[in-house]
Amino acid sequence: MGINSNNMYLDTKTQPIDISLMENKTIPVICPWCDRIVKVAKWAVTRGDKIAPTHGICEECLRLVLEK
Ligand SMILES: [Zn+2]
After folding, report:
1. pLDDT means over runs of 10, the chain (68 residues)
2. Ligand 1 centre from 30 Cα, in Å?
């Protein structure tokens, strides 16, 4: 499995948004290497938007990947 570092970490930069249209959702961050939930992230999403689990490597798998 290739590693796309662009998708590995969440972009924490904030952009100007209309807060009244946003709502906070809890989104699981799943490690694609071991299929475990790494953590649960709180995201502000546009009201009505579908949410989907996002992916982020967990510390354990990151270590294994870096060792290879
Ligand atoms: Zn993992």
Report:
1. 54 70 88 94 83 89 91
2. 8
